[in-house]
Amino acid sequence: MTRVFSGVKPTGHLTLGNYLGAMRRWAEVDQHRSEALFCVVDLHALTVAHDPARVRRLSRQAATLLLAAGVDPRLCTVFVQSHVDEHARLSYLLECVATDGEMRRMIQYKEKAARERERGGSLRLSLLTYPVLMAADILAYNADEVPVGDDQAQHVELARDLAVRFNQRYGHTFVVPRATPPQVAARVMNLQDPASKMGKSDDSGPGIVYLLDEPDAVRRKVMRAVTDSGREVEYDPEGRPGIANLLEILAACTNGNPESLASVYESYGALKKDTADAVVEVLRPVQARHRELCADPAYVEGVLRDGAEKARAMARPTVDTAYRAIGLLPPVPEPAALNAVS
Ligand code: TYM
Description:
This protein is mainly alpha-helical and 342 residues long. It folds into two domains: 3-181 and 297-337, HUPs (Rossmann fold); 205-293, Tyrosyl-Transfer RNA Synthetase (Orthogonal Bundle), CATH 1.10.240.10. Helices cover 54% and strands 8% of the residues. Strands 1-2-3 form a three-stranded parallel beta sheet. A two-stranded parallel ribbon has the order 4-5. A two-stranded antiparallel ribbon has the order 6-7. Strand 4, helix 7 and strand 5 form a beta-alpha-beta unit. The longest helix is centred in the C-terminal third of the chain and has 29 residues, at 297-325. The chain is globular and about 80 Å long. The site of ligand 1 has 27 residues, from strand 1, helix 1 and helix 6.
């Protein structure tokens, strides 16, 4: 059976981009047709300046939202990355396989590092090595597929390269994974700045639809989305990125096609109104379920406890194999255990 792994980083409140680019497919498709693991990747939230209490809060919220989005622990494994030591264990081995040049070529690193330098801040070393930890997340489970939005494609490509290199040097150990981006809404753009991704860690609130935004806030944000000065509704991501973004969002929310939807609309206003309504309808059940789950934190904790146990049992044999393959001495068994064997 195909093995799927994906994750979400608790660096901010989850957005419509996270939902349409990744989470919705996890719930609607991946967990039904594969052996799937979905993870709140909290170690990744420590790569930039962070407030410990906020990371804890956002981790719990992300886990609750995954379940609210329909990820079902009876069908898949839901857990928090730091509860399973194998991620960090494997990450170090992969650091011994990856190169410094590879890390510095990562687009997200270059962008985030440039922003941080502009602010005069210092960079955490973990921001540079982050993609290696992400590769460890994926390879520890021998995942075949990684359902992610477009922005993660380069990171999954690195995971592939590291798997191939490790296997060639030290013997076959890892499955070589591949990214599976969605057909529509693979990169939902910021409504106020259609040249940038709608990202949860960004500060520009008016351009970002959060999963827990009230319907009025969603409508306001979509109705005020930046468009160009043209009048005709055309699907032209290069020439008219703002309108193309709205068409993609509407298509994703209604299971439609952005090009054919373009021909239905004669004005930007009508397109914005229908897009706002569609987003509100898509978010409504997620928000209702989120309210229910917030009233039952013990249930969410139980899911995460069981999930971590299952995940550990899946990852440990692969990571142990990698430790042996790369040349590390197996731990010496307790004398009592030796006697029992002989
Ligand atoms: P993160 O937390 O930024 O995003 C979680 C998922 O949401 C997708 N996504 C988007 N898709 C479309 N449009 C957008 N505007 C948008 N914003 C986010 C992301 O592509 C992702 O699929 N490095 C990862 C987390 C991670 C991971 C992993 C993912 C760590 N280890 C192993 C997969 C496998 C990240 O920062 O995602």
